[in-house]
Amino acid sequence: MDAFEKTALSTDSFKHVIDGKLADSPTNAEAINPSTGEVFAHVPVATREQLEETIAAAERAFPTWSAKAWGERADILRALAALIERHAERFNTMIMREVGKDRASAAYEVMSASSWLRAYASHTLQDEVSTGATGRVSQVRYRPYGVCGAIIAFNFPLVLCVLKLGHSLLVGNCLIIKVPPTSPCVALKFIELAQSIVPPGVLSALYGGSDLGQWIVEHPRIWRISFTGSTAAGRAILSSAAPHVKNITLELGGNDPAIVLPDVDVKKVAQHLFLAATSNAGQICFNTKRLYIHEDVYDAFRDEIVALARAAVVGDPFDPETTIGPVQNQRQYDKLKGLMADSKDKGYKIAFECEAPAHGEKSKGYFIPVTILDNPPEDSRVVREEQFGPIIPLLKWRDDGEVVARANSDEYGFSATLWGSDMKRLRSIADRLFYGMVWINEWGVIDGDHLITGTKHSGGGVESSKYALSSWAYIQSFTCKESLD
């Protein structure tokens, strides 16, 4: 560890990163620990002038950065991966504190961030050259946009930094990251540490609210935007970016179904789907959010899911007994409490609701009990809305065509899973699903070589994998005729 890293890690101070240096602002915001509801840090709120300064620094850095050899930029990604690995335990602790993840989930995020960077470093874009009979040389070239912006969500602050910066920097862009408003600290610290590796202005970080996001999206000298967040925010970004006809990738919400056939091993599949529904307290875009269980195994499956929920421990991530932490912020907590109240008011059958620390005088944490709903109506809020929390509706089905229609009836189209032994039947159902990602007999298999994509209201474009690399470049047709006629 060099002196720069030692200094950066010796303090819990969190600042903007502008032109390779730390920067403060006149106004600060509070960073809240979701397990306690208490303030653990203050972060500066960027001004419009600081955004202009950041853009100017990126523009100065761009010519030299984009002129570097592809292999040099790939080596930078590998160095960033090594940096994460050196400080994995520190990042784990920070994620547990500010996101509320249990220790295993935090460690998984940190491990994924480093491994994805290494995968991205191996990706390439090859120019295509052809020579005609007349001596004309034609070339298709991939060119970096210049200054780009990334707006990331609260649930995976480190991985989402990596998801955006890996390909952006590899292609030769300079990137400004707007860190999440409710979980900014790990992203700010990572980008601070990264300044020992990347040249000044190449990778910057700013903290702010929706006004900062709008300034970034509307700025005429930021040429591309990559956004991860809610569908409502994605619509606003499309509207704000339209006057500048910006290139945009949107990874938005999901209401992801699982379809369980009658020929499953109930115990095994229930374990997989309980994890799929409750990992990160249900706050993953592709968490399973609707479980369609065939009527022949419905009762047995429900009982097995209830048993798993009964064994779960909702609590402080730093308690070694905890298996599910809090949701990350007050807004999400209030939304989930509203969904639970609506389900109870309408008399939906609750198969199980586990114990969780109460939000009151003794605990200000955002703890939501794991709740299993027994076959609520298809048009209920808890089925039609993206919960983004550990509330699991179980739904009974009988006919393949019926369950496909129900799964596809949602406005979202992020991911779906299917479970069973009859592969021909599984493939037949999968081929009729209108989702960007479909897994059969597994869930959440994502790495640096696996694309992340959705359809309908779940977004547009591709993140991660070699298929996303070209989205960080514009394609240029370059033609050269050797002599004048």
TrEMBL record:
<dbReference type="InterPro" id="IPR015590">
    <property type="entry name" value="Aldehyde_DH_dom"/>
</dbReference>
<dbReference type="GO" id="GO:0016620">
    <property type="term" value="F:oxidoreductase activity, acting on the aldehyde or oxo group of donors, NAD or NADP as acceptor"/>
</dbReference>
<keyword id="KW-0560">Oxidoreductase</keyword>
<feature type="active site">
    <location>
        <position position="251"/>
    </location>
</feature>
<protein>
    <submittedName>
        <fullName>Aldehyde dehydrogenase</fullName>
    </submittedName>
</protein>
<dbReference type="InterPro" id="IPR016163">
    <property type="entry name" value="Ald_DH_C"/>
</dbReference>
<dbReference type="Pfam" id="PF00171">
    <property type="entry name" value="Aldedh"/>
</dbReference>
<dbReference type="InterPro" id="IPR044086">
    <property type="entry name" value="LUC3-like"/>
</dbReference>
<dbReference type="InterPro" id="IPR016162">
    <property type="entry name" value="Ald_DH_N"/>
</dbReference>
<dbReference type="InterPro" id="IPR016161">
    <property type="entry name" value="Ald_DH/histidinol_DH"/>
</dbReference>
<comment type="similarity">
    <text>Belongs to the aldehyde dehydrogenase family.</text>
</comment>
<feature type="domain" description="Aldehyde dehydrogenase">
    <location>
        <begin position="27"/>
        <end position="476"/>
    </location>
</feature>
<dbReference type="InterPro" id="IPR029510">
    <property type="entry name" value="Ald_DH_CS_GLU"/>
</dbReference>
